[in-house]
Amino acid sequence: MTLHSYRSHTCAQLRDTDVGSTVRISGWVHRKRDHGNLLFVDLRDHYGITQIVTDTDSPAHAVFDRLRAESVVTVTGEVVARSSETVNAGLDTGAIEVRAKEVVVQSAAAELPMPVFGEAEYPEEIRLKYRYLDLRRERLHANIVLRSNVIASIRRRMIDQGFTEFQTPILTASSPEGARDYLVPSRVHPGKFYALPQAPQMFKQLLMVAGFDRYFQIAPCFRDEDARADRSPGEFYQLDFEMSYVTQDDVFNAIEPVLHGVFEEFANFGGKGRSVSAMPFQRIPYRESMLKYGSDKPDLRNPLIITDVSGHFHESGFGRFASIVADGGVVRAIPAPNTAEKSRKFFDDMNNWAQAEGYAGLGYMTQKGGEAGGPIAKNHGEAATAKLIAALGLGPDDGIFFAAGPEATAAKLAGAARTRVGNELGLIDKDRFEFCWIVDFPMFEYDEDAKKIDFSHNPFSMPQGEMEALETKDPLDILAYQYDIVCNGIELSSGAIRNHRPDIMYKAFEIAGYTQEQVDTNFAGMINAFKLGAPPHGGSAPGIDRIVMLLADEPNIREVIVFPMNQKAEDLMMNAPAPATPKQLRELSIRVVE
User: Fold this and answer.
1) Higher pLDDT, 249 or 451
2) Buried b (16+ CB within 10 A) or exposed e, 268-291
3) What is the dihedral of CA 15, 18, 24, 27, to 10 degrees?
4) 139 pLDDT higher than 90
5) What is the mean pLDDT of residues 388-407?
6) Are 560 and 265 a contacting pair, CB within 8 Å?
7) Burial code of 25-44, b = ≥16 C-beta within 10 A, e = fewer?
């Protein structure tokens, strides 16, 4: 039998049924273990690991002995069964080993800047500079394969739902709305620039106007934004989709099975065995979410519910809260269940944390065996405190934290405190994926700095009540057909039923202080298209990187991106960004101003 030049099998294929056969496998030297007269080598490729064994009498022994880890070799040898006590149940190939007869070195590795074997933490700078080494490590390698499988699954599911995939332009026009653009100079048109798309928003809506009905793509998007744990600087990918002749319910009914199916399919990644919330996903109005969870991205694995208790402190003996309420502020209560045995330090640490976050502080009330303690309880009065605790439905050993101040500030602090208390008390179930839709976002908000009404979210959403609402309601009371999909406290995407009517669009922008001429200038492509027959349409764009990050259970998005940039938006491996040559600048009619 003639063997292939490099391999008859991968490093994951050989089983006890192959014992006695001569095979050839290729891969990286993962690690070596010298047992005196025997040398064991773990050989690794994309698929898995096979143990190679060689003794001092074999010429292969001398070759392996001098090789560094991560050298690439081709091994020819005989498959032998491992003895029962040396079988490795944790390895697909753990019942066998290959007794090496011949080793060919394909590429000898120099001394490594970081090890591949083991999962030791290494500085991010080293990991990103030598990302190809980092990607050889088991955890990261598995994450990237997961990413590929997730995208393939999403694609299949979208096609099964009747969506068609299209590609939209990468070189496009700058958008006056949204984040900062990446600009690309035009050589043919000196002084003019393309922009990389922040999202294919205009194009996907124009595809609906063009009559394609159900579009999707796994779309690259580019935003010149600072990095965060759940946001990559520079570029990211989203499942971009749009549908014609749909209501908000139709959008939810189309995308829920895709997300639910993908999360169920990969819930066991890493052997975790997690559950996914049932369909239909819970729908929570924006204002209710801000009240109960202090966030429009609630983590529903956390059982704590925030309650407005402002009424309890009207003319209260606790003067500080009484004066906040009298001045139009609010007091929000966050329960802290079963904290009777917690020391005073637990409560003080929470207050110190709130102050470190820039808030005035976080009030608290303790309870032990139904007896309330702390300055708030003391000053508020025994009867009033008992009434408050009864209204909150608390047990006799449950404490309370209080966030007080202007509504927006108190809601934000209460939301952050709810998350922190949930984490500190171990209340968050890590084995669940909890989805919800946040719906009924306000169309407009009051901009305190500019002293005017402006769009609160997406200016191209259809207002609920359409033209009649815009003409008859207080703008701050108008809701929009806007929605966010949230999983475990992470926003996967925003979406909306779009405003496809030019007359409604002009009116909505007029309320936000824009003239018809400004709309015509800034959004010419879209508004002109809408004047030539546009179907009602809507969509969304869940973030691929965030979906994979959740499924891989990774706290940082860089762990699920093949070649990510660092937090300063630098590619340390390819040395980007880099200066352009004088010749390149001349061709582009550009001069760099220091």
Assistant:
1) 249
2) ebeeeebebbeeebeebebeebbb
3) 0
4) yes
5) 95
6) no
7) bbbbbbbbeeeeeebbbbbb
**What is the Cα–Cα distance from 232 to 425, expressed in whole angstroms?**
31
Q: Which residues lie across from 188 on neighbouring strands?
A: none
Report the distance separating Cα 208 and Cα 303, nearest Å: 41
Dihedral angle sign, alpha carbons of residues 184, 185, 186, 187: negative
State the burial class of residue 477 (Cβ atoms within 10 Å of its Cβ: 0-12, 13-18, 19+). exposed
Cα distance from N-terminal residue to C-terminal residue, the chain: 68
Q: Are 41 and 86 in contact (CB under 8 A)?
A: no
Q: At 570, is the pLDDT very low, low, confident or very high (cuts 50, 70, 90)?
A: very high
Would the CA dihedral through 419, 422, 425, 429 be positive or negative?
Answer: negative
Residue 479: DSSP 8-state: B
| Side-chain half-sphere CA neighbours of 155 within 13 A | 11
What is the CA 95 to chain-centroid distance, rounded? 39
DSSP 316-364: -SSHHHHHHHHTT-EEEEEEETT-TTS-HHHHHHHHHHHHHTTSS--EE
What percent of the chain is helix, strand and coil (3-state, nearest 5)?
A: 35, 25, 40
List helix spans (H) across 211-328: 248-265, 286-292, 319-326
- Read off the DSSP letter of residue 312: G
Q: Quick check: 175 pLDDT over 80?
A: no
Whole-number Å distance between alpha carbons of 540 and 487: 15
Amino acid at residue number 564: P
Closest alpha carbon to 237 in 270, 264, 197: 197
pLDDT score, position 448: 85
Q: Could you tell me which of 72, 67, 78, 68 has the C-alpha nearest to residue 102?
A: 78
Least-confidence region, from 62-66, 164-168, 444-448, 545-549: 444-448
Q: Output the average pLDDT for the chain.
A: 95
At residue 498, what is the residue type? R
In sequence order, which residues have a C-beta less than 8 Å from that of residue 535 and are 6 or more positions away? 208, 209, 211, 244, 245, 500
Give the tokens for residue 423. Answer: 């984490």
Neighbours of 386 (CB within 10 A): 14
Q: What pLDDT is stored for residue 219 in this prediction?
A: 97
**If you count them, how many residues does the chain have?**
594
* DSSP letter string, 394-421: --TT-EEEEEEESHHHHHHHHHHHHHHH
Question: Which of the two residues, 272 and 530, has the higher pLDDT score?
Answer: 530
Distance CA 517, CA 507 (A): 12
- 177 band by pLDDT with thresholds 50, 70 and 90: low
Q: For position 118, what pLDDT does the model report?
A: 87
**Per-residue DSSP letters for 51-94?**
EEEEETTSHHHHHHHHPPTT-EEEEEEEEEEPPGGG--TTSTTT
- Are 203 and 169 spatial neighbours (Cβ–Cβ below 8 Å)? yes
Instruction: Assess contact for 306 and 331: CB atoms under 8 A.
Output: no
